[in-house]
Amino acid sequence: MNARPSALALLAAALVALSLPAQAADVAAAEALAKKSNCMKCHSVAAKKEGPSFKETAAKYKGKGDAEQKLVVHLTTSPKVKVDGKDEEHDNLKTKNEADVKNVVQWILSQ
Ligand code: HEC
Fold this sequence. Notes:
Elements: H1 7-19, H2 27-36, H3 54-61, H4 67-74, E1 80-83, E2 86-89, H5 98-109
Antiparallel strand pairs: 1-2
Bound molecules: heme C.
Heme C binds near residues 37, 74 and 82.
């Protein structure tokens, strides 16, 4: 039996990898974690709800080098925000995995 991967399979894998944008977030994982963390109760990608849309946030941070760091802090330290005029603690992402937090942040910033 020949256990080596075929050259064609390797080429196909390489092409798939190349077709992804450089800093692609894992969109499906980001959306799943945002849903699980109830983010979409107050946010949506394109429309303003209680909180700004993710497109709005991406535009606000466009070209700012510390964007990722700021949003990681925002989504892990329960900062106080105004919801309906009242001070509330902003929800954290429901994960302890820093890579998962960064993935959601990159997804938001890529909107
Ligand atoms: C109870 C409603 C509510 C929930 C739930 C919520 N947010 Fe927010 N979020 C807000 C509000 C209100 C603001 C605006 C805060 C401000 O501008 O002071 C905000 C701001 C933000 C911002 C912009 C921060 C910035 O620096 O501009 C991001 C990104 C964000 N939220 C992501 C999330 C994610 C991801 C989740 C899930 C873990 C989440 N939010 C859950 C209400 C909510």
